[in-house]
Amino acid sequence: MIEYRWVTHDAPCMQEATDLRFEVLMAPFGVTRDDNWGDTDPHSHHLVAVEYGHVVGYARLIADSGAAQIRQVAVAFERQREGIGSALLEESVRKAHELGLDPVFLNSRVHAEEFYRRLGFTTVTAEPFPYGRTGMLHVRMEARRQH
Ligand SMILES: CC(C)(COP(=O)(O)OP(=O)(O)OC[C@H]1O[C@@H](n2cnc3c(N)ncnc32)[C@H](O)[C@@H]1OP(=O)(O)O)[C@@H](O)C(=O)NCCC(=O)NCCS
């Protein structure tokens, strides 16, 4: 069974979350390992998916000045397409709303656009733009709370 837990940046499982983020988000694109993910940022909330004591998914919610941003969404390769990413996103959006934040936005790698669209996010940029350490093309997407 998978548990979804909000943890602090210094929780022991964050080391595994760091390994996971590198393996899933950076290594496939030849990016040199750099473990500075800005985890101590006071506005960041860390969500881990844990199975049998091991981290199989991660997402970050940055809660700052009225809007919320989701970043660094990663699911272990061997556990993708099982609903873990969707559960991480749904819990992140729920948390943002609990904190009174709306809309929720994110920068999606173009290949993941369909994943976020299915979760209620809409693309708000006209053209993809290079972003982050990989320089991959991204689109800005956001979800507004239904009242
Ligand atoms: C993108 C990612 C977070 C999705 O998490 P996941 O647990 O695999 O996704 P889910 O199982 O919840 O997928 C739900 C639906 O989203 C869509 N989807 C998920 N991954 C997709 C992909 N790579 N391409 C197209 N559609 C995708 C599918 O419709 C899927 O439903 P289906 O499996 O029934 O067809 C995960 O695959 C991942 O970590 N990818 C590598 C890192 C990455 O790209 N992160 C996003 C950075 S912006």
**Bound molecule kinds, no repeats:** coenzyme A
From the N-terminal CA to the C-terminal CA, the straight-line distance is: 33 Å
- The number of distinct β-strands equals 8
- Oligomeric form of this entry? single chain
Note poorly predicted spans: none
What structural class results from the helix and strand content?
alpha+beta
What does this structure look like?
- With 147 residues, the chain is an alpha+beta fold.
- The chain has one domain (2-107): Gcn5-related N-acetyltransferase (GNAT) (Aminopeptidase, 3-Layer(aba) Sandwich).
- Helices cover 23% and strands 36% of the residues.
- Strands 1, 2, 3, 4, 5, 6, 7 and 8 form an eight-stranded mixed beta sheet that branches.
- The structure holds coenzyme A.
- Coenzyme A is lined by residues 24-25, 73-75, 80-86, 108-109, 111-112, 114-115, 118.
Features:
globular, binds coenzyme A, 8-stranded mixed β-sheet, Aminopeptidase, alpha+beta, 3 helices, single chain, 147 residues
Topology, element by element:
Elements (H helix, E strand, L loop, with lengths): L1 E6 L5 H14 L17 E8 L2 E11 L2 E9 L8 H15 L5 E6 L3 H5 L4 E2 L5 E3 L4 E8 L4
Parallel strand pairs: 4-5
Antiparallel strand pairs: 1-2, 2-3, 3-4, 5-8, 6-8, 7-8
The structure holds coenzyme A.
Coenzyme A (COA) binds next to helix 1, strand 4, helix 2, strand 5 and helix 3.
